[in-house]
Amino acid sequence: MARWQPGAAERMRGAALDLFVERGYDATTAADIAAAAGLTERTFYRHFTDKREVLFWGSDEFEASFLDPIDALPPDAPAMTVVVAAVVGGAGRFTPERRDFATLRAGIVDATPPLRERERDKMARLASLVAQRLIGRGVPATDAQLAAHSGVTVFTTAFARWVAGDARSPEALCADLFDDLARLTGQLNSRTETV
Amino acid sequence: MARWQPGAAERMRGAALDLFVERGYDATTAADIAAAAGLTERTFYRHFTDKREVLFWGSDEFEASFLDPIDALPPDAPAMTVVVAAVVGGAGRFTPERRDFATLRAGIVDATPPLRERERDKMARLASLVAQRLIGRGVPATDAQLAAHSGVTVFTTAFARWVAGDARSPEALCADLFDDLARLTGQLNSRTETV
DNA sequence: CGCGCGATGTCAGCATCTGTCATCACCCGC
DNA sequence: GCGGGTGATGACAGATGCTGACATCGCGCG
User: Fold this and answer.
1) Helices A8-23, A99-111: crossing angle, 10 deg rounding
2) DSSP code at position A87
3) CB contact set of A67 (below 8 Å; sequence gap of 6+)
4) How far apart are the first and last CA of chain A?
5) How many pairs of residues across A and B have Cβ atoms under 8 Å apart?
6) What is the reported pTM?
7) How many helices (H) and strands (E) would you count in chain B?
């Protein structure tokens, strides 16, 4: 028999989710989570840099689902084409069977300021990574920033609607929101009216 | 003679900035900051909810400089017009004589993950406030989200360039970036080509 | 003169996070 | 098999972040 049960991190993630739902984030200590998984506080911090981080596993795969589609595009693809591909790729991760979990998790994150902070940081980091790829493709730095962050805003907004119960798929929502964005920013041209 | 010197918060802000520059954020304790201002750690936490918050005073005025211009607009102003007014209003706070301070502070914030997190949170909160005003004006919620966050992205990008030494004023930078954004999102229309 | 107000000090205490060392099943080479 | 290295864990100590409770005392007001 193995000295330790395998899947320590997985067990702690599950325990954390349960405890956060049951008594809230603040009222749950790292030691509580570890104990619920049959481990000690010190081991918790060996698997997660933060108490918060226990709700943010899989960030690498999440980021990859945005970044991988970029590499499949021709090098001369327009900046917004790259961004749309990235966002659609990321949105594709969220299949209907994940909705219950996503809703549960989003409820906890939204209700907990420090978790919201971390979530926003992750999304900002994602935007920076996308921008970096754009810059690597020769897009000017400011354009890359604007395009990447716009894409992440579209994703975040679409995701929020999906979690809130919108029947459309995340990809469809993103497509609609890109159209909305184009329409909105089209209002900007009416100032100068130059083409 | 007064029992306490006035301006406790101000003194701690100054001391914090000095200490963060001198030895870094992590190596500076809240007690260090308080002691440098002739106060105790407990008093520090009476003035600031967080150790981080000592670098984020004046958030209310900052937000107000975005929100106040909105109220001056007619109720039927287009969403992006409202956003542009807000962003220009916010950018107007940053006059040339503030650049040295802004650069110093930005250096600390950028170099310190927890401070970056807080900064991003503040900007996201600002975007939410702008979106709320838009919704109050009858703009659909998703449009409001997209427009407000796009505006904040423009501001953040402009601010970064200003701090990095761009000679243009923040307002001018914002104007240019709004044009860039319109041009970029214009790429989206080439997909459907419908008007 | 006395009384309350308000900013501060003092102290205790819990939670977050880190460094360090010991433990012990497992695996690998001999 | 057998002995040593490996790696995840436990145990412990400690610094720091942050909060609650209570005491202090100049100041202004009646």
Assistant:
1) 60
2) H
3) A86, A129, A130, A133
4) 73
5) 108
6) 0.93
7) 9, 0
Q: Which of B6, B9, B17 is nearest to B44 (CA)?
A: B9
Give the contacts of A137 (CB within 8 A, at least 6 positions apart): A75, A77, A79, A82
- Phi and psi at B24, nearest 5°, equal 90, 160
Establish whether the CB of B149 is closer than 7 Å to any nucleic acid atom in strand C: no
Phi, psi of A134 (to 5 degrees): -65, -45
Which residues on chain A are in Cβ contact (under 8 Å) with B121? 116-117, 120-121
Token pair, residue A93, equals: 């991760």
Q: Which residues contact residue A58 at a Cβ distance below 8 angstroms, ignoring those fewer than 6 apart?
A: none
Tell me: pLDDT of A190 over 90: no
Lowest-pLDDT range, A6-10, A80-84, B72-76? Answer: A6-10
Compute, in degrees rounded to 10, the torsion defined by CA atoms A118, A121, A123, A128: -160
Enumerate the nucleotides of strand D whose atoms come under 7 Å of any protein CB. Answer: 7-13, 16-21, 25-27
CA of B37 to C1' of C7 (A): 15
CB under 8 Å to B179, separation ≥6 — which residues? A188, A192
Instruction: Please give the average pLDDT of every successive group of 10 residues along chain B, which has 195 residues.
Output: 82 97 96 96 97 95 97 96 98 97 97 97 98 98 98 98 97 97 88 51
Burial of A63 (0-12, 13-18, 19+ CB in 10 A): middle
A121–B116 C-beta distance less than 8 A: yes
Contact partners, residue B3, CB within 8 Å, separation at least 6: none
Nearest to B142 among A142, A161, A182 (CB): A161
Give me the residue from B117, B156, B157 closest to A118, CB to CB.
B117
Q: Is the pLDDT of residue A194 over 50?
A: no
Closest CA to B131 of A118, A75, A159, A153: A153
Identify whether the C-beta of residue A38 lies closer than 8 Å to the C-beta of residue B147: no
Residue from B112, B117, B137, B142 to probe the interface with A (highest A Cβ count within 10 Å): B142
